[in-house]
């Protein structure tokens, strides 16, 4: 795999973002936004909207919310890897954990994931996230109501997993 770069999302990146969100293997598992909503997030100082690049081309993006949380609790609001099954999702999650705990000094990193998104749930579990509970039938989708699983990682869990003794 080529080197992976993480950079702030720019206006010129929005076509990729919208296409990636609308892809058949992504859209069932997220709530896609329109371009104005992404622009609003990009301008919000409490949100990090980041592109993921590899081999000189965009391969995904992620959105973090709560950068200024007084409780030091950061939400991983969105992860989209345009190409599935080759490790970009895992690279994104690892970068998000590094940002959250090493760079931003957060205490908690959390997310919610659709209950039927088994691939993402397995990735998050394998990266040390703990399932905290379920938000039952909280989203109305095209085929009925959908539930979300809340998952999180705490700073001491990250530190224990990535301390020199852990290797």
Runs with pLDDT <50, length 5+?
Answer: none
Strand order across the biggest sheet? 1-2-3-4-5-7-6
Instruction: Calculate the terminal CA-CA distance, rounded to whole Å.
Output: 23 Å
> Gyration radius, to the nearest Å?
16 Å
Treating each run of at least 4 consecutive H or I residues as one helix, how many helices? 5
What is the helical fraction, as a range of percent? 25-40%
Number of strands: 7
Which strand-content bin applies to the residues? 35-45%
Order of helices and strands: EHHEEEHEHEEH
| Name of the CATH first level | Alpha Beta
Q: What is the total domain count?
A: 1
CATH fold-level name: Aminopeptidase
Question: What's the name of the CATH homologous superfamily?
Answer: Gcn5-related N-acetyltransferase (GNAT)
Mean pLDDT: 95
Largest sheet composition: 7 strands, mixed
Structural class computed from helices and strand pairing: alpha+beta
Could you list some keywords that capture this structure?
single chain; 167 residues; alpha+beta; Aminopeptidase; 7-stranded mixed β-sheet; 5 helices; 31% helix; globular; N-acetyltransferase domain-containing protein; GNAT_dom; acyltransferase activity, transferring groups other than amino-acyl groups; Acyl_CoA_acyltransferase
Describe this structure in words.
This protein has 5 helices and 7 strands. The protein is α+β, with helices and mostly antiparallel strands. A hairpin with a 2-residue loop joins strand 2 and strand 3 (57-65). The chain has one domain (4-166): Aminopeptidase, CATH 3.40.630. Strands 1-2-3-4-5-7-6 form a 7-stranded mixed beta sheet, sandwiched between helices.
